[in-house]
Amino acid sequence: MHYAILCYNDEDVVYSWTKEEDDAVMARLGTVHERLKTAGRLGPAARLLPTTAATTLRKATEPFVIDGPFAETKEQLLGFYIVDVESLDEALAIARDLAAANPGGAYELRPVSLYLPDPRTDP
Amino acid sequence: MTEAAWIAGALTAARPQVIGALLRYFRDLDTAEEAFQEACLRALKHWPENGPPRDPAAWLILVGRNAALDGVRRQARHTALPPDEMISDLDDSEVPLVERLDGAHYRDDVLRLLFICCHPDLPHTQQIALALRIVSGLTVAQIARAFLIGDAAMEQRITRAKARVAKAEVPFEAPGAIERAERLAAVAAMIYLVFNEGYSAGDAVMRAHLCGEAIRLGRLLLRLFPAEPEIMGLTALMLLQHARSPARFDPDGAIILLDDQNRRLWDVQRIAEGLALIDKAMRHRRPGAYQIQAALAATHARAARAEDTDWAQMDALYAALERLQPSPVVTLNRAVAVHKLSGAAAALALIAPLEPRLSAYFHFFGAKGAFLRELGRMAEAQVAFDRAIALARSPAEASHIRQHLDRLTQDSVPAPP
Questions:
Q1: How close is the nearest chain A Cα to the Cα of B289, in Å?
Q2: CB contact under 8 A, A111 and B222
Q3: Which helix (H) or strand (E) covers residue A64, if one does?
Q4: What does the alpha-carbon distance between residue B103 and residue B98 come to, in Å, rounded to a whole number?
Q5: Is B273 in contact with A51 (Cβ distance < 8 A)?
Q6: How buried is B51 (Cβ within 10 angstroms: 0-12 exposed, 13-18 middle, 19+ buried)?
Q7: B53 Cβ neighbours under 8 A, 6+ residues apart
Q8: What distance lies between CA B389 and its chain's CA centroid?
Q9: How far apart are CA B13 and CA A76, in angstroms?
Q10: Are A65 and A55 in contact (CB under 8 A)?
């Protein structure tokens, strides 16, 4: 069984950390990651850029793009993709393809600032 | 991260929104600031006991507002009743607070608070000091240190600036679209001033502090106005420039030029965020000065080595910036790109007409000296470099030109037979 562990916090606070504070948190997390890697439990992980860097594709009959994060509360998070692209436009093109296959709801596109590949397949 | 550090972070993050809302209620900056202080004191007492509230800003606004109203009522027992306009909306205090915070009110609150600091009568240094004090909550001592003046002098400067803006009568009604756009432009310029104050600071701690603060304010504006490409551009520009800061100075504090920086020291997270924001801004196809400057910074960020820089792209971007915002400084910067593309003679020809307007500009004479030296005109180069040293505003700038002069002397020494 795979679980996705989604990380929530106040981005105002987290992005006010100094480099030293941020490094200290990442170092502590690194220790936990190592333990999980050794146990073969850790899949891919990612740290996202703040919501100010997000763009949202609303899936209507004619999907449209909104600046900023997905802000509605009546839909729930049901899954996510990680895609490797050169630009936001490329990512949006993929999102439009997905939208055509699966209408309804929205896709929030959030750039990944740190990507840790699956240590079980990319040692 | 300890609980105390988390609370301090949450109070700082909530500050612009809370003071902005309290200012709308009480229409007086001092009252709003005092109410915020009081709310923070109560938060420090209650949050560790009861856990942090779901919405710290809403909690602080409610508590700060009630505390200030208590104060007004207490005073009222001793003095005459307060004028009605002092407490603008006592009647509807039953309206659920959450509903009020969701409203568009809140973004105009923050914008108004920032805009108050941009009063056109205030010199730039006072705008920056006021914003750092009121919006960011830096202490007078911290701001004084950034400006290299004494605490008392800074205290006086801020008090004067506050008195000036108190008389300005910025309207409290929600602004119309045009007025909002004007406020946004003024606020963006003020935030960039804060950034530049930090960027040029000699002290590394102050640099990180002010640049970090300006970026935080940029992100704040972006959350309030998510579809403004120039705000994306401004935030991207600051992120991309600040990303270079670990590589900009040597251990003695001397400036390391872009060409000579160790690019592995650049902050990849900030670069990623800056590039993502430029991507977002480009989709709007409404170019502006911040976006172009961000694109220039991005062109540097994308080059793994200085020699990989796309100078043709740089030249094209500077040309676009010249059209949008003609200025001799922009042309001077373009000359650097022209130098790389077409050589020193072409660059020198481009900047020659600028001299009357840039006769007091350090960088003009630095660049002129460098071009002349490359063309072998050593005596003229010497004159230009001497002029640059006389105009340097910091020891780092002066020592940078001295390196040029040293090289000049070495170059001029005839080769031993």
A1: 20
A2: no
A3: strand A64-67
A4: 9
A5: no
A6: exposed
A7: B47, B59
A8: 27
A9: 27
A10: yes
Give residue limits of the domains in chain A. 11-116
Query: What one-character-per-residue DSSP string does A38-57 give?
Result: HTT----EEEEPPGGG-EEE
- Name the nearest CA neighbour of A48 among A3, A96, A95, A80: A80
Q: Taking the alpha carbons of B136, B139, B143, B145 in that order, is the dihedral positive or negative?
A: negative
Angle ∠(B83,B88,B90) on CA atoms, nearest 5: 100
Residues of A whose CB is below 8 A from B235: 52
Q: How do residues B313-371 score in pLDDT, each as one tens digit? A: 999 999 999 999 999 999 999 999 999 999 999 999 999 999 999 999 999 999 999 99
State the smallest CA–CA distance between residue A52 and chain B in angstroms. 6
Residue B42 burial class via C-beta count within 10 angstroms: exposed 0-12, middle 13-18, buried 19 and up: middle
Give the phi and the psi of residue B326 in degrees, each rounded to 5: -60, 130
The letter for the amino acid at B154 is: M
Answer yes or no: do B222 and A15 touch at CB < 8 A: no
With a CB cutoff of 8 Å and minimum separation 6, the contacts of A32 are none
CB distance B396 to B377 below 8 Å: no
Cβ(A68)–Cβ(B276) under 8 Å? no
Q: What is the CATH number of domain A11-116?
A: 3.30.70
Provide the 10 A C-beta neighbour count for residue B81: 11
Residues of A within 8 A of B208 (CB-CB) are 18-19
- Residue A52: which of B208, B222, B283 has the nearest Cβ? B222
Residues of B in contact with A89 (CB under 8 A): 279, 283
- SS3 state of residue A66: strand
Q: At B180, list the tokens.
A: 């909002």
| Cα dihedral value B286, B116, B83, B72, nearest 10 | 110
pLDDT digits (tens, 9 = 90+) for A7-54: 998 888 888 787 888 999 999 999 999 999 999 999 999 999 999 999
Count of beta carbons in the 10 Å neighbourhood of residue B266: 18
Q: Which residues of chain B lie closer than 8 angstroms to A13, CB-CB?
A: 6, 9-10, 13
pTM over 0.80: yes
